[in-house]
């Protein structure tokens, strides 16, 4: 399954970035952009949010899912101070949960609809695909930061 492969591949790449030295974790992909560490912690938080959303969509009909402000999370949860090892653990456990749910439920409930507070009507399949696509976008940012 193409989605499972994308989830596994982005997990593998992201997992390796959690092992970067502190000097690389402090690099930014652009002026006034997040550091690599902040991107990784954002991925850990986003993974937990997406995991929970997917479970809600499967378990309960007619969900309305609220967006979250990633910059507020970064600032108010002090991503710069969070232990990277904790973020890695959170990322991995939630990604493994998403992979399990995709394997088990995509075929059964992929067309199940929900409402996202900013993007409107979506399907479970859309949200599952978002996990891999979102992760890949941040991998691209990390690669750009590490090239500097």
Strand content: 5-15%
Determine the N-to-C terminus distance: 35 Å
Mean pLDDT comes to: 96
Order of helices and strands: HHHEHHEEH
Helix content: 55-70%
**Low confidence ranges:** none
Number of strands: 3
Based on CA atoms alone, the radius of gyration comes out at 15 Å
Strand order of the largest sheet: 1-2-3
Largest sheet: 3 strands, mixed
Class inferred from helices and paired strands = mainly alpha
Tell me, what's the shape?
globular
Number of helices: 6
What do you see in this structure?
There is one protein chain. The chain is mainly α and 148 residues long. It has six helices and three strands. The chain has helices at residues 2-17, 22-25, 36-59, 70-76, 84-109, 124-147, and strands at residues 64-65, 113-116, 120-123. The chain has a three-stranded mixed β-sheet. α1 (2-17) runs antiparallel to α5, α3 (36-59) runs parallel beside α5 and α5 runs antiparallel to α6. The longest helix is centred in the middle third of the chain and has 26 residues, at 84-109. It is globular. The mean pLDDT is 96.
